[in-house]
Amino acid sequence: MPARRRLLAAAITAATCLGAQALSYATASASASDGSSTETVVSRGVEIPTFYTPPATLPTANGALIRTEPLPLAVSLPTLDGPLPGRATRLMYKSTDSNGAPVAVTGAYIEPTATWKGDGPRPLVAVAPGTMGQGDQCAASLGLEHPLSLNGRTVSVGYEDVAIYRLLATGAAVVITDYAGLGATDRLHTYVNRLDEAHAVLDAVRAARSLPDTSLTPASRVGLFGYSQGGGATAAAAELQPSYAPDITLAGTYSGAPPADLAAVTKAIDGSELAGALAWSLNGFLQSDPTLRPLAEAHLNATGKAALTDLSTMCVGDALLGYAYTKSAKWTTDGKSISDIIASTPALQTFLNSQRIGTLTPSSPIRIATGISDNLVPHAQARRLAADWCEKGANITYRPVILPNVISPLLNHFTPLLADQGNAVSWLTDRLSGKPATSNCGVLPILP
Predict the structure, then answer these.
(1) Which of 86, 100, 326, 399 qualifies as a cystine partner to 369, CB 3.0-4.6 A?
(2) 8-state DSSP, 50
(3) Quick one: which of 160, 277, 179 has its CA closest to 225?
(4) How many Å apart are CA 347 and CA 349, to the nearest integer?
(5) What's the pLDDT at 206?
(6) 72 and 193 together in one domain
(7) Residues 337 and 413 both lie in one domain
(8) Separate counts of helices (H) and strands (E) for the chain
(9) Mind telling me which Gene3D superfamilies this protein's record contains (predicted)?
(10) Predicted TM-score (pTM) of this structure
(11) Sign for the pseudo-dihedral over CA of 136, 356, 361, 251
(12) 315 φ, ψ to 5°?
C-alpha cells in the first residue's frame, strides 16, 4: 500500500476509534428569502444546522441543486497536492418520493485529491449509506464532519466514512446521499422504502454532475456502492435506473446484503440486537402510506406506540443500547409479532410486496455479496435477489461471503461488510475503468 494511503488509513482508524466529539453543531445562518424556517430543530439534544431545513418551494427537475456549502471533514490531512482525501461540499437537492411528490434530500460531494489512474476521466461513485437510524442527527453527511458523536442522549457513528475514504483513495469522486427525511428536517426518514431510496441515490448523481468547479465530465463513468440498507438502495436504483434516470449510464453497482424481501427481514430482526429497526420500518411505512395508520392504531399498544415515537429520533447506537433483543410481541395489543400481523393483514402484505426488489430487470452489471451466515438481513433472500435477476437475463456477479456463524445476528451481518469491502471496491473500480463484468449466473445454483 502506498505511503499516502497507509497514512490516510491510519487517520481514519484513529478518528473512528478515538475521535469521540461532543455534539455542539453550530447552527448556520439561514436566509428566510427562500421560504425556509429559521426555527432551530433539535433532535435528542443536537441542534441540526439550518442548512438541513428545506425551503418552502423546490425546483422542478430531479437532482437540481437547492443549496450547497463547504463541508469540513473530520479526517483531513494536508499535502502538497491538496487535502486528503479531498474537498467536501454539503448538498441539498430535489428528488421525488414514492408518492410522486417533490422532496428535498441532503448529502455530500467529495472532490478527491488522489489522481484517477483508471481508463477515462475521473468517475463518480454514489454511496448509499447503511442503516444510520431515523433521527436527523444520524445523517451520513453529518457523520463526515463528526465520525463519532456523543452527548449523553444520542450515539451517532459515521461508519460509512471508511468505505467513502477507500473509494476516494482510488481517485474516484464520491457523492453520498442522506436519503429522504434523514438530515432534512421537514419529514421523517422513510427507512427501506425502495422508491424513495433509489430516487435519492440516482438524483444524487444528477446533483453531483451539476456542481460547478469539479473534475467530472459528461463522459465520467458512474457506479453505485452500498451495503445493508445501502445495498437495498443501490439494488433498487440499478433496476429503476432505465425508467427513472435514463440520462444516467451505470458502469456497475455493488449491492451488499440487500434487504430485498422486507417480510423476511422483518421476521429476522425481531428480537435481535437491531430490533429497533422494526420501528424505523413501521414509521417509514406510515410516512409513505398514511392509509396504514388505522392498522397501526388497532394493533399497537401503548408500549409499541411509545417505542415508535422514541426510536424515530434515534441513531443505530441508541437503538442498540435501548432496544436490543426487544420482541415486537410486547408492542402489540394481542401479543402477536409484527410478522404475524403482516401475514394476516392483506393491506400490509400488499405494501411490503410493493417494496420487493428484483421484479425489474437492471440494464447494467451488479455485484451482489451476502454473508452465508447472515441471519439479520437473511442470506437466503439476498441470494434470491441474485437468482431473480439472473432469471431475467441480467449481468450478475454473485459472491457468497463464507464466514462462520458467530451466534450474534449483528456480527453475522456486519463482519461480511468488513471482509468483502476491499473486493467490492476493486470490482467497482474495474467497472469504472471500463473493464467488462463477467456474470456467474450459470454457476449460481451450486453456490451457497
Answers:
(1) 399
(2) G
(3) 160
(4) 5
(5) 98
(6) yes
(7) no
(8) 14, 14
(9) 1.10.260.130, alpha/beta hydrolase
(10) 0.92
(11) positive
(12) -100, 175
